[in-house]
Amino acid sequence: MLSVAGLTRRFGEQLALDDVSFDVVPGRMTGFVGANGAGKTTAMRIILGVLAAHGGEVRWNGEPLTQEIRRDFGYMPEERGLYPKMNIRDQLVFFGRLHGFDPIRAAERTDKLLERLGLAERAGDTLETLSLGNQQRVQIAAALVHEPIALVLDEPFSGLDPLAVDAMVDLLREEVTAEVPVLFSSHQLDLVERLCDDLVVLSRGKVVAAGPVAELASGPSLTYKLIVDGDAGWLRDVPGIQVRDVAGGTALFDVENDGVAQQVLQQAITRGPVLQFAPERVALSDIFREATR
Amino acid sequence: MNDRTLDRPALLIAEREIVTKLRDKTFIGSTVFSLVLVLAAVIIPALLAGRGGPDKIAVVDDAGARVVQQASVTQGDDGFEVNRVADRAAAEKLVTDGDVKAALLPGTDGYVVVGKDRVSTGLESALREAAAKVGMEQNAERAGLTPEQLRAGTKVELELLKPALLPDLVANFVNIGLALVFYMTALGFGMMIAQSVVQEKESRIVEILAAAVPIRSLLWGKVLGNTVLALSQIVVIAGASVIGLIATDQLDILKVVAPVAGWFVVFFVLGFVALAGLWAVAGSLATRQEDLGSTTLPGQMILMIPFFFAVFAGSSAKTVASFVPIASSMAMPGRMLTEKVPLWQPLLAIVFLLAGTVLIVRLGARLYERTLLQTGRRLGYREALALESS
Fold this sequence. Notes:
The complex is a heterodimer of chains A (293) and B (390).
Chain A (H helix, E strand, L loop, with lengths): L1 E10 L2 E11 L4 E6 L5 H8 L7 E6 L2 E2 L2 H4 L2 E4 L11 H11 L4 H14 L15 H13 L5 E5 L7 H14 L6 E4 L3 H7 L2 E6 L2 E7 H6 L3 E7 L12 E7 L2 E6 L2 H14 L2 E6 L4 H9 L1
Parallel strand pairs in A: 3-8, 3-9, 6-7, 7-8
Antiparallel strand pairs in A: 1-2, 1-4, 4-5, 9-10, 11-13, 11-14, 12-13
Helix pairs in contact in A: 3-4, 3-5
Chain B lengths: L8 H14 L2 H24 L6 E5 L2 H14 L4 E5 L3 H10 L4 E6 L2 E5 L6 H22 L4 H5 L16 H35 L2 H8 L2 H33 L3 H35 L6 H4 L1 H16 L2 H7 L5 H12 L5 H28 L9 H6 L4
Parallel strand pairs in B: 1-2, 1-3
Antiparallel strand pairs in B: 3-4
């Protein structure tokens, strides 16, 4: 398990990270969200040892993370870049070896990844001749080539079209085994919602919410939406519920428990046709907005 | 979970630097260009000096042949070759056709040298001297004297109080040439090092590199790879010029240059490594290629000032320069070629250079570690020194 404990980092007077702690559990995708400047990239760079922390530490299975272990991590920085004038196969082999693979193994692994990414016939081309989408593919391959024991991806899907995102996600699911913790940051919340098992929300350098997406999304209160053919104003007089909003036949209300909700539905049916009745799921964007308010 | 076969990331970085350069057409092109330039510099003067084998002299009789042979012995080098023909007309035809340099024909009281439009003074005086010698020996024999008796007391020997190892012109040429080789190589490779560092910063690949291996290894890899490349380039060019010298029979120059070559390599490597560290820092201070102009300025100055010193300064200033680190890489090998330098001098200069190199590289490594990941804006040297480690 990859953990950060009490990370603090200042840039001059500004506190970029303030006592940040969270876990990234193996075999689960942990989404790292927060507004621009919240400190996501700073935290990731500290995890990768590219930036020093002013307080706290990064742990691997409970022990302080060493350079030796970190070398087996896979990292995709936010601002992309590989060698533009180097051919992509040589480039990936180089990164494999940089992370400790011998040349033969690095080459085998590179060929497998290029094949998987549909770039096998471009192997001898320089990176700069590839389309941006393909460059992004090579970039993720560079993070995966050495079969990393942990993955840290900074905005891995930014700039990709939906199809490319799907392809990338498939690749990640395929390559990342059950022992590998994955941390990725994103500001595309719908994507995070779809992909992530766990969530860490950062705001102004502080963790404001963390945990499994399912738990965070269920929220403390139960909200339902009712649409009837007619006026829904009668809801205001129903005991045990709190109406948030009524507009014509559409109403949004909170209930204390599911039982009360069912009673409301029965009452609605006796009054006339019910067009829609459903619990209103709290969208991630609401959690995000709530948490970072 | 990974194979730990490669525990020296610096070697891998160096390997990548070398392989990339060897595939770079610009690099190969510039190497071939310098190769051609150096070969031309070695071969063309020799061709112009007409060192392509012995000069042919036409003669019509034994007496003429003997004089030419005598001239050939006195002349040394390639000497002259006798071209025996039947008569005067045949000899003149050879001269007119340019098949022989001149013809030596019997004259009314001795010989006549026949040339086409002109006869070089060297050739004329060699034949004149030889004819006199052969003639005098014959005359002496007739007078009952041995050649030794005849020559007794007439020998003139030459003694030089400050012998030069090479002719003045050649010495100057070699001096400037050696300094220039270092200057050009250090500058050319220096800019390449700085550019490759900025390129890694610009493309942010440096983050991936720094996450995988220590930043110091990155620096060492770059310095190592480029030093190997620079040295190989020089060895190839030096090898070509040696072949050129041998092919054109200029062994005399080779004999003087060869013993200094080893010293040159030592001075070159140490000076180059120090500068390479500095150039890498110049790259890490910049954030874009455009910044290199200002961040490489100190490096250019450190090269340029000693270069002009080594080339144009008077001999005492040159002596001082030959002990100053980096300047010594340009001044000392040249001095050793053109004057007698006691052994302790290059050794002391190497000690200074070594100390300077260690100092510069250590400082460079520190600056490099602190500035490599600063991608916000271009930094100054003073600013970088004040930075705390990231």
